[in-house]
Specification:
Blueprint (H helix, E strand, L loop, with lengths): L1 H12 L3 H24 L3 E3 L4 H17 L4 H21 L3 E3 L4 H6 L4 H9 L2 H17 L3
Antiparallel strand pairs: 1-2
Helix pairs in contact: 2-3, 2-7, 3-4, 3-7, 4-6, 4-7
Keywords: Membrane, Transmembrane, Transmembrane helix
Protein name: DUF2809 domain-containing protein
């Protein structure tokens, strides 16, 4: 277990600073936008705005970096596990707020809400890695 953790720490440390900056900026803006969307549509929101930093930057960015070498489906599968844990803890600890009778509850029923959220947000890992790769290569590798 210790060697696995050390391997992941080394991978994160080897990440170019420019790539890390792209991840942080893109995921922060994405997180703020999704939190705002969830609030405006009265679906769900963080209890505090700064949770965008803890969830999107401190949790999702390192996972994205570790998953970027995998295929789309592997990123999604691993991302589903990561987001399942995050969604479960967010609602259990009440650091995320679910609006009662929101549109997703009406479509899928309340018992499926957190599962639906995990299934949706797991797409962030392959989509985020693709987006960051495109933005990073356009900005830092112009010829």
């Amino acid at each position: 277990m210790k060697t696995l953790v050390n391997k992941h720490v080394i991978t994160l440390k080897k990440t170019p600073k420019t790539l890390l900056l792209c991840y942080v900026v893109i995921y922060f803006l994405w997180g703020m936008g999704m939190n705002r969307f969830g609030t405006e549509m009265e679906i769900a929101r963080f209890s505090h705005w700064w949770q965008v930093i803890t969830c999107y930057i401190l949790y999702m960015v390192p996972i994205s970096i570790l998953l970027k070498k995998y295929s789309f489906f592997e990123q999604y599968a691993y991302g589903l596990v990561a987001m399942g844990i995050l969604e479960f803890l967010g609602y259990w600890l009440q650091t995320s707020y679910i609006y009662p009778n929101n549109i997703l509850d009406k479509i899928f029923n309340p018992q499926n809400f957190s599962l639906g959220m995990a299934l949706f947000f797991a797409l962030y890992f392959p989509a985020g890695n693709w987006l960051v790769s495109k933005v990073h290569s356009r900005i830092f590798y112009k010829k």
